[in-house]
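## retry 2 of 3
previous attempt timed out at serialization; input unchanged, resubmitting
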Amino acid sequence: MTYVGPLPPFSERAPWWGGDLQTVRNALAGATGARLADAGERLWFAMPDGDRLAGELHVPAPDSGRPLAILVHGLAGSAESTYVVATASHLLACGFPVLRLNLRGAGPTRAHCRDGYHAGRSADLAMVLDGLPAEWRARKLVAVGYSLGGNMLLKYVGESGHATRLAAAATVSAPIDLAAASQRFRAPRNGLYQRWLLRFMKREALAPCIVLNEAERRAIVQARTVYEFDDGYVAPHHGFRDADDYYARCSAAGFLDGIAVPSLLLHADNDPWIPVAPYSKAACLGNPALTVAVTRGGGHVGFHGPRAAAGGSWHDAAIAAFFAAAGGDTRQSA
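## retry succeeded, writing output
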């Protein structure tokens, strides 16, 4: 374990031993015990190009005045993803209001977007923070990003520096080096994962409201790997030379030096998708705002341990503890 600070200890719980079972547990067992009392209040965030993003706002009763926590899902996910609902449930129980955000083309935004998200589209997060209702802009804000959403969040925080609206940030299993993650994902042992994820990526990209030309549509349909999908569609569609250029310019690892608010980077040493080496480099940067926590075990957005909160994972308790410590009490000033 390489983390320091107030985080609780982690160990994998039976029968979810090993990186693969930790990774697939959410899909196999669902968020047992993680429930939200209601669907939340729907908020819409207008993007400059006319697309709209939807978020689901939940406020605990009574409202404790704690920071609003904004949750950003991962690749092919949405605000309804098991891990998002589990974290929302835990943070609400801890007194944090929560906004579950849907990125472009995800969940209910799909019918309101002509374009999709990618790992470096951090400007969308800035627009969401600026577009919050005034009462929430006046509140302290924190954010959690999972996998691809974590890379996007760290890129935003690094780009923004001291100007960020966030008081703290946390990420879970973020591919902070996109090229290294892509290479790991192409390993033969990850073939089933790749085919499964690529199916959902294609479904999102080919949604009726997404505007594509014939070359882009053909590239999406013919892609056999995530790299081919990124190289043939994501990169050229969003103005990058190719997948390698997209990875180089959008990897959060290149923005970590600029982070100026407390930021927790959670990762497992047996994540089958994301290599650990970029996290070792991040820990050596010497940026005092960063807490890099690499656990023994946990898989990819797994962290199913015996001390997990009811219906949640270890990372939910760790994030709540980190947010509480990052700003002391973290409640809104009187």
